[in-house]
Design the sequence.
């Protein structure tokens, strides 16, 4: 949305003197010096523009924008601060005026984001609604208002605001995009990059500036040229009573550079229309050229006289004058009468005598401090003609190279002698320095006066400070104090002669360095909606696989299987994969891909109250990645010691791990009172110092993470080929070596050739299987959603989810061969009552096996290298999920800056884990983040997506009471069930209580529900009671499935199956609720440990932040760009899919509601041929 109050800020600025006015601001208007005027007729003699004539504005790639010779200003459309806009009164008049203008082809409209706080753009959007896109031209402007998007504006500011404009205009692109004024806090080079990005992304065909002075315009043109984008338009106030852009040379500079000069306020805000007089002054709020009318009477009388003679309205004469001067006039139109008058400015031309009459009563005007310049900064009067230069320079004859000097005439007349420096300095005589002087140097676009000094010894240094910074850039900005002299020595002349060669060498070297950097860290590709995109589908799959295929596969999974060995393990394991992992993964990937954003944006599209649910995975990733890197630092310690021979852990494996690697001081263990009723003594941790090596390796890991993600998915897409390819190769080598060990076959048969059916009767194995699948897959960390948002919007999300999950299962089961081969070799068979922990396998069992292998150092290096790379690939995807949130939120910082800041903050926050109590802190945080926060995050995502998605549809068909009662039974059944089960230590009783409550509430809700007006699908619609139950129980999840299929399904893609929402809501979510409930009894026995308490509190703080988003969703709007906050609030029709903004050839849809089986091709006439789409996609 537009920044609220912008129209009033503009009015306040104008009142404070931002407008370049005389009159009330300067009661002594100045006539135009005829020596400084351009010729009276700047158009070719044989050209008489009419309503069909067009001017070609230079666009990118030679694609010109053709515009009429008269542009229509839309400032008054919607603006209350200046024009007292009243929609009831003014909107019909605007439509009538537009119909008049449209009938003759004058459809070039100028609007701005600040006009009426965006209302002007919205009105324009309604006018364009039924018009072919090539039948009108729209120009809007970016104003750097002091809001979050612009205050710290980097190059993304113009593009972010243009996205808002396109939504209001209901267009895919604008024809021309201007910078509204030079009041932006950033450098012109930064703004130029932002404007160029708008063109490159297809959101604008051409760009320009408004209210710039000549120097600023030239700077912008040069900066844009560096991006291969021409400056097409320069807009300033120009009229008969404000000819300052002409006399200052700005219009001539524009013509030299093939820039179209557009003059706004061409009728001086109505003062030249003939309807005002000294007895009928215009409103004071119209502040451009706000002269008292009695001063303008001579001008008005001449215009009226010519108008009467030619039988045209007075405004037509004033506009025709601007056209003859080579200016594209911009005039405001509020009704059909004004449109009729302005149209008559075309089809005829003033004679030379009539032009001279008007110029005889014209005024020069003035400039302001901040905007509306049209001149050169710090100049009241500029030299424009060659004879004026000669007069100003006095006796100086040597100006052969003077192409277009720009200087203060009054000062130049008094300066003597005159100093000149040129690239070819030897051809111009240099006078000795004394007295006042001006230093002139050659710039890339001609000669410019760059420094004026009253002290001769300061002139050269002043020149170098001001000139070298622009011409030579920072590369040559060295100590120049020795050059502070009154005259120019031969050494200094030689310096200027050689400078171009230095510049050329530097530029060539910089180009090669830039190419090398782009090859190593390429910028990401852009998808059709302008979002960054993976280099390939394989890159996305590898990155996602790297996130889930980590140490949990090589360390945790073998330990779990060791404790539950036998083929019977795969029954609960595979059921958990298909009932929890794959359905949840489909949800995470599909919403990220369809809604084009990270978890917060994606869940905001599901329902605005789920922003907190979307924030949950980001919090989990941000917390986990901090201690995860410390775990990698411990592995790096092993890796370093793997180069020592003999291996330092030989004969002291456990002592080496705890004493040398972790290096924590043993705590004084606390305890509970008898019966666990209270805490007798809390655990005390005497060691608090940082461990230097752990800190160093942690910093190294963070550096690798930064390198991998700072440039976005373009670089990450290359990194993952190494982070996944190398571990796969090394794992295969380790597996092969393990399987070749003596007696390895016995260990392998322990897993694959043993059957223990009695284990299936134990609840432990089922709980363990669910936990393993849950944690090894990586759902709930947010990176699947973030990475999927960089996919092509219509990628095959269901297949990707199955491939990712399947590859994870395959990898961890292949990796298990390595551990079980070692188990057989060491003959370390499972014992009843003995359970192997994950750290035992990673840091004790495998290092012990390495000691018994030939070439132990080589295998140790390979083992720990594999563990580091596997863990590293999981670490950077977690931080990348956080970075995606910051980038998507519209923070006006570049992605490298965001990633750098997050990396530094994360490194500092990981330092507590690098202390002498860090191992125990890690255990406490990890235990409760995983067992409480992570489970709750996934559970809330599953039930939220299948409960509140389009819940208004359910309420409209069944009534609010029925909706509330049914969901009370659904959520209450889970809470009551687990509470009773734990309370009486009887799972069957808990299941009975939970199901009982759910069934009772379901029956009540069906009975009190109203009969749906729109029947349910399939057989559910044959009976009113069944129809009510279908809406209450299945509608939200099923409708989410159908809407997502409209994006990620069809056209050869796999559709999300019908049973998917049922699995999410009625299988996956209750299972997670049960797993979640086991955390609290466990904490009750560990509450004497401060580290466990810290982790427990932190986990519940994450839960609190999630619930805060449900109760107060607006608090999380800061994480969503303004133009996307309304997504998910569209009006919907029950059982009907939400219309897509961009629908490709999606083939057959699975619409149960009788919708057509195919969607016809859309011909998008609003798309320009740039290869990028510009609209913001949304469901």
Sequence:
């Amino acid at each position: 949305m537009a920044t609220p109050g912008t129209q009033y800020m503009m009015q306040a600025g104008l009142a404070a003197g931002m407008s370049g006015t005389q009159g009330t601001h300067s009661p002594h208007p100045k006539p135009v010096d005829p020596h400084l005027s351009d010729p009276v007729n700047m158009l070719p003699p044989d050209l008489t523009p009419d309503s069909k004539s067009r001017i070609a504005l230079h666009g990118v790639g030679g694609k010109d924008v053709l515009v009429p010779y008269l542009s229509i200003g839309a400032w008054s459309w919607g603006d209350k601060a200046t024009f007292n806009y009243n929609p009831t009164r003014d909107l019909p008049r605007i439509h009538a005026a537009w119909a008049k203008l449209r009938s003759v082809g004058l459809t070039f409209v100028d609007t701005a984001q600040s006009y009426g706080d965006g209302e002007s753009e919205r009105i324009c959007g309604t006018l364009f609604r039924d018009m072919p896109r090539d039948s009108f031209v729209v120009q809007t402007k970016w104003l750097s208002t002091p809001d979050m998007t612009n205050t710290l504006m980097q190059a993304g500011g113009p593009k972010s605001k243009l996205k808002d404009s396109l939504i209001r205009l209901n267009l895919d692109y604008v024809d021309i995009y201007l910078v509204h004024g030079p009041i932006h806090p950033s450098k012109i080079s930064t703004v130029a990059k932002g404007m160029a990005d708008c063109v490159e992304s297809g959101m604008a065909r051409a760009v320009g500036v408004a209210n710039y002075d000549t120097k600023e315009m030239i700077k912008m043109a040069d900066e844009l040229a560096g991006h291969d984008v021409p400056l097409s338009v320069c807009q300033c106030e120009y009229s008969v009573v404000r000819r300052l852009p002409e006399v200052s040379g700005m219009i001539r500079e524009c013509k030299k550079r093939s820039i179209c000069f557009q003059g706004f306020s061409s009728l001086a805000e109505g003062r030249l229309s003939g309807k005002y007089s000294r007895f009928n002054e215009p409103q004071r709020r119209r502040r451009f050229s706000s002269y008292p009318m009695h001063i303008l009477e001579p001008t008005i009388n001449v215009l009226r006289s010519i108008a009467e003679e030619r039988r045209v309205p007075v405004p037509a004469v004033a506009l025709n004058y601007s056209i003859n001067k080579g200016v594209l006039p911009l005039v405001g139109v509020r009704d059909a009468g004004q449109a009729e008058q302005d149209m008559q400015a075309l089809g005829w031309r003033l004679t030379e005598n009539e032009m001279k009459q008007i110029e005889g009563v014209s005024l020069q005007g003035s400039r302001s401090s901040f905007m509306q310049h049209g001149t050169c900064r710090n100049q009241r009067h500029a030299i424009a003609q060659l004879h004026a230069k000669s007069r100003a320079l006095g006796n100086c004859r040597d100006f052969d190279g003077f192409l277009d000097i720009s200087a203060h005439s009054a000062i130049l007349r008094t300066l003597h002698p005159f100093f000149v420096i040129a690239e070819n300095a030897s051809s111009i005589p240099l006078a000795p320095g004394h007295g006042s002087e001006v230093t002139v140097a050659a710039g890339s676009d001609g000669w410019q006066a760059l420094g004026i000094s009253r002290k001769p010894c300061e002139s050269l240094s002043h020149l170098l400070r001001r000139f070298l910074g622009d011409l030579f850039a920072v590369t040559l900005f060295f100590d120049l104090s020795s050059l502070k002299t009154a005259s120019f020595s031969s050494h200094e002349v030689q310096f200027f002669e050689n400078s171009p060669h230095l510049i050329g060498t530097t530029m060539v070297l910089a180009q090669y360095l830039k190419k090398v950097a782009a090859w190593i860290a390429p910028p990401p590709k852009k998808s059709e909606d302008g979002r960054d995109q993976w280099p390939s589908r394989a890159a996305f799959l590898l990155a996602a696989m790297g996130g889930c295929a980590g140490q949990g596969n090589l360390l945790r999974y073998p330990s779990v299987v060791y404790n539950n060995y036998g083929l019977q393990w795969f029954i609960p394991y595979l059921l958990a994969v298909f009932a929890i992992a794959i359905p949840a993964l489909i949800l995470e990937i599909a919403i990220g891909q369809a809604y084009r954003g990270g978890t917060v944006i994606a869940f905001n599209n599901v329902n605005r109250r789920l922003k907190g649910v979307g924030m949950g995975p980001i919090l989990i990733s941000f917390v986990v990645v901090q201690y995860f890197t410390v775990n990698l630092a411990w592995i790096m310690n092993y890796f370093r010691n793997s180069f020592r021979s003999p291996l330092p852990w030989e004969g002291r494996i456990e002592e080496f791990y705890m004493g040398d690697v972790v290096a924590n001081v043993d705590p004084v263990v606390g305890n509970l009172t008898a019966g666990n009723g209270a805490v007798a003594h809390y655990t005390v941790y005497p060691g608090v110092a940082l461990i230097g090596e752990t800190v160093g390796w942690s910093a190294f890991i963070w550096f690798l993470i930064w390198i991998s993600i700072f440039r976005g998915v373009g670089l990450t897409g290359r990194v993952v080929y190494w982070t996944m390819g190398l571990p796969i190769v090394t794992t295969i080598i380790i597996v092969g070596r393990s399987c070749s060990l003596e007696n390895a076959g016995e260990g392998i048969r322990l897993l694959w050739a043993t059957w223990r059916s009695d284990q299936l009767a134990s609840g432990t194995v089922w709980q363990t299987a669910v936990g393993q699948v849950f944690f090894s897959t990586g759902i709930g960390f947010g990176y699947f959603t973030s990475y999927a948002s960089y996919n092509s919007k219509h990628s095959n999300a269901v297949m990707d989810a199955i491939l990712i999950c399947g590859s994870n299962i395959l990898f961890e089961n292949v990796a298990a061969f390595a551990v079980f081969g070692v188990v057989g070799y060491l003959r370390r068979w499972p014992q009843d009552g003995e359970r192997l922990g994950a750290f035992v396998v990673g840091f004790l069992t495998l290092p012990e096996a390495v000691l018994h292998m030939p070439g132990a150092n080589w295998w140790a290096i390979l083992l720990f290298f594999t563990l580091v790379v596997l863990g590293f690939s999981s670490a950077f995807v977690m931080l990348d999920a956080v970075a995606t949130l910051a980038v998507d939120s519209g923070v006006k910082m570049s992605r490298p800056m965001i990633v750098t800041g997050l990396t530094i903050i994360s490194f500092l926050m990981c330092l507590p884990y690098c202390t002498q109590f860090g191992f125990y802190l890690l255990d406490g945080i990890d235990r409760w983040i995983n067992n409480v926060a992570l489970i709750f995050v996934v559970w809330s995502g599953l039930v939220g997506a299948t409960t509140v998605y389009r819940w208004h549809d359910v309420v409209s068909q069944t009534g609010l009471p029925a909706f509330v009662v049914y969901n009370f039974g659904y959520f209450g059944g889970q809470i009551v069930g687990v509470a009773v089960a734990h309370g009486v230590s009887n799972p069957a009783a808990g299941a009975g209580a939970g199901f009982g409550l759910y069934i009772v509430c379901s029956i009540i809700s069906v009975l009190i529900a109203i009969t749906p007006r729109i029947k349910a699908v399939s057989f559910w619609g044959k009976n009113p009671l069944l129809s009510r139950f279908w809406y209450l129980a299945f509608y939200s999840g099923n409708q989410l499935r159908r809407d997502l299929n409209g994006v990620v399904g069809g056209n050869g893609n796999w559709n999300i199956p019908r049973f998917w929402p049922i699995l999410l809501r009625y299988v996956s979510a209750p299972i997670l609720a049960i797993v979640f409930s086991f955390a609290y009894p466990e904490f009750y026995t560990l509450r004497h440990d401060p580290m466990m308490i810290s982790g427990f509190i932190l986990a519940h703080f994450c839960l609190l932040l999630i619930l805060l988003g449900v109760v107060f969703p607006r608090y999380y709007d800061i994480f969503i760009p303004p133009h996307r906050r309304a997504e998910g609030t569209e009006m919907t029709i029950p059982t009907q899919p939400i219309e897509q903004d961009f629908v490709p050839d999606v083939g057959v849809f699975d619409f149960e509601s009788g919708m057509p089986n195919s969607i016809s091709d859309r011909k998008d006439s609003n798309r320009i041929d740039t290869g990028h789409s510009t609209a913001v996609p949304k469901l």
